[in-house]
Write a structure and sequence with these properties.
single chain, alpha/beta, Rossmann fold, 7-stranded parallel β-sheet, 8 helices, 7 strands, 48% helix
Length: 261
């Protein structure tokens, strides 16, 4: 069942991807460009953004830090001014460091909050006025947040990362309730393990690991189908979804046995 307006035709549509210098964000930006969208990419790395623009003629780049609310506002205003609106705003910025309670680091934990969650709020602050105006005019628009299956339930080594992703899932659900009646789309993207700079430091075997390009294909397919939650690869995320239904005693036991932690 489609919960959002289906997005299949990207010709002439404006897509702003925040956190698109590497990984899922960059691959999705590239796929949207190939589909005919006017792509604007943002991240901190000017060199990475310039490389993207050089490889994707007609695209644009705005370097910024998602923790800077004024920079986010200025970028959204610039994009809307140049292109007349924003058809897709995608938040794919993130930071990750493995952490357990036995090695708690407050500064690292708060950095996760500032980037992974506060950054998403800064995007909302920047684009919601534009999207609401587009909803009233009939143009519509879509807001997409990249969370993670790590936000489903508590997992070992996810003390800093997991709670921020759980917050994004809840945020997307609440946004959907508010924005769907205005014909504005909202989606939450919950990937499993994807081969990115964030996962490169993992010392454990990552089941069902996929490439960023495969992740991008899954994301565009989810938008095309009008899905609210886009999760992949199903052979892995389906198992984790089943675990969400378990009471705590068997859940904790299965996680400990599966991870050895």
């Amino acid at each position: 069942m489609a919960l959002n307006p289906r997005m299949a035709d990207w010709q002439g549509k404006t897509a702003w991807l925040v956190g698109a210098s590497t990984g899922i964000g960059r691959a999705t930006a590239s796929a949207l460009h190939a589909a005919g969208a006017r792509v604007v990419v943002s991240a901190r790395s000017r060199d990475a953004l310039d490389a993207f623009v050089a490889a994707h003629p007609g695209s644009d780049a705005i370097a910024l830090d998602v923790t800077d609310r004024e920079a986010m506002r200025d970028a959204a205003a610039r994009i809307a001014g140049v292109h007349g609106g924003i058809d897709l705003a995608m938040f794919c910025a993130g930071t990750y460091a493995a952490m357990r309670a036995t090695d708690f680091d407050l500064d690292v934990a708060l950095r996760h909050v500032r980037v992974n969650y506060d950054g998403a709020l800064h995007l909302l602050d920047a684009v919601l006025p534009q999207l609401l105006a587009q909803g009233r005019s009939g143009r519509g628009g879509h807001l997409s947040l990249v969370s993670s299956v790590a936000g489903y339930r508590g997992l070992p080594q996810s003390l800093a990362y997991g709670p921020t992703k759980a917050a994004l899932i809840n945020l997307a659900e609440t946004l959907y309730l508010d924005l769907a009646p205005l014909r504005l789309g909202v989606s939450v993207i919950n990937p499993g393990f994807v081969e990115t700079p964030l996962t490169a430091g993992n010392a454990f075997r990552m089941p069902a690991l996929i490439t960023p390009e495969e992740a991008a294909r899954q994301i565009l397919r989810g938008w095309r189908r009008g899905e609210f939650e886009i999760h992949f690869p199903k052979r892995f995320t389906g198992w984790l979804k089943a675990l969400r239904l378990l009471p705590y005693p068997p859940y904790f036991a299965i996680v400990r046995r599966s991870t050895g932690l």
